[in-house]
Amino acid sequence: MLVFLCLQEPYWDKIYKMKIIKQMLISTSILLLSSLTFANDPIVNQNTDEIIHDIFPGTIITEDQKLILYRCTSGGYQYPLHFKHIKDEQRIRELLKQHPQFWLNLSAIPFQEKGRYHLVVDAIFDEHVGESCHLKDVLL
């Protein structure tokens, strides 16, 4: 019996390997169960009249007294802004007068007009005064 135990792996190595296998099985089970849970979420019908808002980060520029969001992306798309609430437009114009540099997170609905995307601003989420979100400004 002693010879047989000596020829096999040490007892502690087996226990260690069993713990690792047990941990892997538990982790795999948790991932599988969570993926099944999310897979059962209902799919929203795309043909509804639901309005989808998105968050648009960017700095504000003006052209002919119109406010334009210069989006914080590598492409830096520029969106003319329209407002649901006049107080949001007034706040942005106030920021332009008071602070030379700032950026915002806007909750908005995009739409296309004459081949150009525009935003209807629903709310201002964040104001970052004295900062820029554009990479070119950070590198300079």
Structure report:
The chain has 140 residues and is α+β, with helices and mostly antiparallel strands. Helix content is 38%, strand content 34%. Strands 1-2-3-5-4 form a five-stranded mixed beta barrel. A hairpin with a 2-residue loop joins β1 (54-63) and β2 (66-71). It is elongated. Residues 1-6 and 36-45 have low confidence and may be disordered.
Give the helices and strands, then pairings.
Blueprint: H1 2-7, H2 11-39, E1 54-63, E2 66-71, E3 78-83, H3 86-98, E4 102-113, E5 116-129, H4 135-139
Parallel strand pairs: 3-5
Antiparallel strand pairs: 1-2, 1-4, 2-3, 4-5
Shape: elongated
Helix content: 25-40%
In angstroms, what separates the terminal alpha carbons? Answer: 75 Å
- Report the sheet-strand fraction: 25-35%
Oligomer: single chain
Strand order of the largest sheet: 1-2-3-5-4
Q: SSE order, as H and E?
A: HHEEEHEEH
Q: In total, how many beta strands?
A: 5
Indicate the structural class.
alpha+beta
Largest sheet: 5 strands, mixed, barrel
- Tally of DSSP helical segments: 4
Rg, nearest Å? 28 Å
Which whole number gives the mean pLDDT?
A: 79
Low-confidence segments, given as residue ranges, are 1-6, 36-45
Keywords:
alpha+beta; 5-stranded mixed β-barrel; disordered N terminus; about 140 residues; 5 strands
